[in-house]
Amino acid sequence: DIQLTQSPSTLSASIGDRVTITCRASRSINSWLAWYQQKPGKAPNLLIYQASTSQSGVTSRFSGGGSGTDFSLTISSLQPEDSATYYCHQYSIYPFTFGQGTKVEVK
Amino acid sequence: EVQLVESGGGLVRPGGSLTLSCAGSQFSVRDSAIHWVRQAPGKGLEWVARIRVKATDYATVYATSVKGRFTISRDDSRNMAFLKMDNLKTEDTAVYFCVSPRRGHSDDAFETWGQGTRVTVSS
After folding, report:
1. Which of A16, A29, A35, B67 is the S-S candidate for A48 at Cβ 3.0 to 4.6 Å?
2. What is the pLDDT of residues B51-98, one digit of tens each?
3. Contact between chains at A89 and B109 (C-beta distance less than 8 A)
């Protein structure tokens, strides 16, 4: 199975900060990676697919990058509503797998 | 609003069975691959199973942790999909989400999610 390792596991940043979460795959997944935001008690919401393509309706504050084994999700200017847990997800090969999540706290 | 709606969760004893349902609301389940993803309490996301559409022979694939115990199926006439769970274990306790990939794709990022249904396996 492909392992996805996210870092950091938690982060705390201030409003307006630029924040980056990384996701490393145990082997190459080309660009078959997505990012989701999940708020407590809610289903995840797709932010980015194919590593860097923004889902329709998602604020331009969120951007994704990378290919192969190393990926990133950047929030350009952190807002209070960005407080959530973020997951990466590889859909290159079955079984699909997710990173362990990064909890983002807005100070 | 376009959505998937799960039902059928509940409390079940270890070794028991349960069937989860996923219905499309203003969403054509019959035209979409359907996956199930679960989330144990306080934990991350785990992909469980996928079923493709009729044109690709309803092909299924399962996570190793559920293979042989869970069965994913669909009833296109009712616009629904199902997850039959047998020989349940305590580690199957989770919220189960019915999800659909980006339109036109079977094996892609998950664009449409249900609200989830909770399954608790406990004696």
Report:
1. A35
2. 999 999 999 999 999 999 999 999 999 999 999 999 999 999 999 999
3. yes
